[in-house]
Amino acid sequence: MKFSAKKLAEKGQGAWIVTIEGEEWAEAVKKGKAKAAANLEIPGFRKGKAPQEKVAQYLTPVKYLNSAVQSILEKAWDFAKEQNSDVQPFNSPVPTPTKISEKSCELEFVFDLKPEINIGEYKGLKSKELVKEEFEATKEEIEKAIDQYRERFALEKDKEADAVIAKGDVVKFDFEGFIDGEAFKGGKGLDFRLVIGSGNMIPGFEDAMIGKKLGESTIKVTFPNDYTPELSGKEAEFKLNVKEIKERVLPKKDDELAKDLNLPNIKTYKELEENVKVQIVEQKTTTLKNVFVNKVIDMIIANSKIELPKAVINKEIDSLYKEFEARVAGQKLSMKEYKKQTGMTDEDIRAELFDDAKRRISSHLVTDKVRNNENFEVSAEEINEKYTKLASQFGLEVDYIKGSILPEAHVKEEILKEKLIDFLYVNNG
């Protein structure tokens, strides 16, 4: 294979050109012919069963050369990435065959060029917003985490016929919601199963059920202001028909619970408490670091000179728009319905996403530059330690995680991200 690169400056794009010829291309053409022949649909014959003379009649160069390109595309891209070109892609390329024949193939991988960045200082930054805190796990937090473990072994038993609903009970019921006497869309459920206190319903709904008995009753709930536009802030009356009330019985907090959980190196309740305490502190510290580092990145962006081509920003807006569309769909609304209810147009939504798109791209450029400047490396030992930790955390074999869940490249990238966060956290504030 041969490689060359070029810049399409007027478009803010670049291209990697890979030429495949000789035996390598001849082999790809051979494979392309075999694959195209196997998929040919010839009248009067089943796929792959037509005689050679019929196959030759229907097998056009367009069909088998296209198959040949597909068979070698990934190999050509990997070859291009190994060339350490000065022309570097910022996003996924669009591959296009520009010259193709029986003798050779020229592939052009077109991509947006990485925007220019003249990074500002990224060490020794100070601000009243950059605060580092030391965290502890409270007794309440430890109890709550252990209760989540106890939930795994919870038993349910029917309460007496005249018993009332209490926090922690499991209730099966029908419900229908009304606003100003009119039933509203999505406000009805049959044989709905709910753990009281789980927070699965809108705020106030589960609390209002506490004290209710079997049979019919009503409760009133106000929808939160950040709910779907047609229900936001409105008071609703729900008619309930409670069919079952079950008490949940959790196991005792003792050594037997610790053993039943089958967690690595934990045999006693005291060891379980200590393990939970460590996890809570780690989670709090990770959250703090991420918030802290995001503030650092914003400061670096403000002190850097970054030129973002309009095309790059627009592509990022496209990506953010799709994410926004998914969130709207999660509220059981189509974009058409959302725009009708809010009075917003596509242009309005994209305009609101503009700053987020710029920040996301700028953040990527800044962190990429810091990583390259500091030349973070990941050793085989660090990768193995990460796999061992994950195996212990999830109770799985290391080989299974490597082969079926997280390839080594993903683990390496995760470790690099952790090193970057640690670096920016330690060297600022």
What this model shows, in words?
The model has no long low-confidence stretch (mean pLDDT 90). Strands 6, 7, 8, 9 and 10 form a 5-stranded antiparallel β-sheet that branches. The two termini are 50 Å apart. 48% of the residues lie in helices and 21% in strands. Strand 3 and strand 4 (104-112) form a beta hairpin. It has 3 domains: 2-114, Alpha-Beta Plaits; 155-249, Chitinase A, domain 3, CATH 3.10.50.40; 264-426, Trigger factor, domain 2. It is an alpha+beta fold and 429 residues long.
Task: Detail the topology: elements first, then pairings.
Layout: E1 2-8, E2 13-21, H1 22-38, H2 52-58, H3 61-81, E3 94-100, E4 104-112, E5 116-118, H4 139-151, E6 155-158, E7 170-179, E8 182-195, H5 205-209, E9 215-222, E10 235-249, H6 255-261, H7 269-302, E11 305-307, H8 310-330, H9 335-342, H10 346-374, H11 380-394, H12 398-405, H13 408-426
Antiparallel strand pairs: 1-2, 2-4, 3-4, 5-11, 6-10, 7-8, 7-10, 9-10
Coiled coil: 125-159
Subcellular location: Cytoplasm
Function: Involved in protein export. Acts as a chaperone by maintaining the newly synthesized protein in an open conformation. Functions as a peptidyl-prolyl cis-trans isomerase.
Summarize the structure in short:
With 429 residues, the chain is α+β, with helices and mostly antiparallel strands.
List keywords for this structure.
429 residues, alpha+beta, Alpha-Beta Plaits, Chitinase A, domain 3, 3 domains, five-stranded antiparallel β-sheet, four-stranded antiparallel β-sheet, coiled coil, isomerase, peptidyl-prolyl cis-trans isomerase activity
